[in-house]
């Protein structure tokens, strides 16, 4: 594999000691170009030999931002190497750094500095997800999906996940709850039509139709998070369909008591009747056991 060159030892101030400490002095290692690269080394690798990461959590790369990065690379070069694993003598696979990889192709580079490490598929997924989350390059839905994949595919618990990504468990939980929203609202959050604050308020609406109604109102009227929270609070307040007996005329109260007495006698249990001045109301039939419920159902011919 003679086309791959080993990067010589450099003491540039731009990288400082941080990168060297991270890779444990791998700049000082010499790699035999005739065999597979050793892990924990940095080598200049042809872009044509690198495959993209199949576990990449990002679903969208902003083209304008990539072009700006490409222009920077033309002037400054690659400041931070990408990370890859070696599949065979002529093939590498990205672990992290796809924006740098894509921008380098746009810049017309033929090779790119890459840190080579050993990783299985699960480690590939975990490293790609965590790197992107920590760099805050993902939208809220992509972060939520990344957290979900870490939990399900990497067999992490929420406490472990919080430690891995440097977030509190409550933060992780709030992101995961976003995945319970209807697809239309998730798309709106992904496309930045609403914010994370809006979405967290909408989650508290149990009815999907109401969620979508408030969401559409939020987008159409560009409502603030505080206004949406107020709407949701009002929706959660129970509507008063009944009134206290004291507000009902005495003659009606007497009639209700008679109705309750007849129903209680018929069902063999205390029956409660509530009503409003508008004529609406409800009848409550309590039961003390499954057998008691079955007895009441038989009386109802159910």
UniProtKB/TrEMBL annotation:
InterPro entries: Chromosome_partition/occlusion (IPR050336), HTH_ParB/Spo0J (IPR041468), ParB/RepB/Spo0J (IPR004437), ParB/Sulfiredoxin_sf (IPR036086), ParB_dimer_C (IPR057240), ParB_N (IPR003115)
SMART domains: ParB
Key words of the record: Chromosome partition, DNA-binding
Domain ParB-like N-terminal: 43-133
Keyword DNA-binding among record annotations: yes
Family in the record: Belongs to the ParB family.
Name under which the protein is recorded: ParB/RepB/Spo0J family partition protein
The organism of origin for this protein: Adhaeribacter terrigena
Higher taxonomy: Bacteria, Pseudomonadati, Bacteroidota, Cytophagia, Cytophagales
């Amino acid at each position: 594999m003679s086309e791959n060159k080993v990067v010589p030892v450099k003491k540039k101030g731009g990288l400082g000691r941080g990168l060297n400490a991270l890779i444990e002095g791998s700049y000082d290692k010499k790699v035999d170009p005739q065999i597979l690269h050793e892990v924990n080394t940095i080598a200049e690798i042809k872009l044509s030999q690198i495959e993209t990461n199949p576990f990449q959590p990002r679903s969208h790369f902003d083209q304008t931002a990539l072009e700006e990065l490409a222009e920077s690379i033309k002037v400054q070069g690659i400041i931070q190497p990408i990370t890859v694993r070696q599949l065979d003598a002529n093939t590498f696979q990205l672990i992290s750094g796809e924006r740098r990889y894509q921008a380098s192709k746009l810049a017309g580079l033929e090779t790119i500095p890459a840190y080579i490490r050993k990783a299985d598929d699960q480690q590939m997924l975990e490293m790609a997800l965590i790197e992107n989350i920590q760099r805050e390059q993902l939208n809220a839905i992509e972060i939520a999906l990344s957290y979900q994949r870490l939990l399900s595919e990497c067999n992490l618990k929420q406490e472990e996940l919080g430690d891995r990504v440097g977030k509190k468990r409550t933060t992780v939980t709030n992101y995961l709850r976003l995945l319970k929203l209807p697809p239309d609202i998730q798309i709106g959050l992904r496309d930045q039509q609403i914010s994370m604050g809006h979405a967290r308020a909408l989650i508290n609406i149990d009815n999907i139709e109401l969620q979508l109604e408030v969401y559409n109102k939020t987008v159409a009227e560009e409502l603030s998070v505080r206004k949406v929270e107020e709407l949701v609070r009002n929706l959660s307040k129970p509507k008063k369909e009944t009134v206290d007996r004291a507000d009902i005329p005495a003659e009606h109260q007497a009639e209700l008591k008679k109705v309750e007495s007849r129903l209680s006698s018929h069902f063999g249990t205390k029956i409660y009747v509530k009503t409003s001045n508008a004529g609406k109301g409800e009848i409550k039939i309590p039961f003390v056991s499954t057998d008691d419920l079955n007895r009441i159902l038989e009386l109802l011919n159910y």
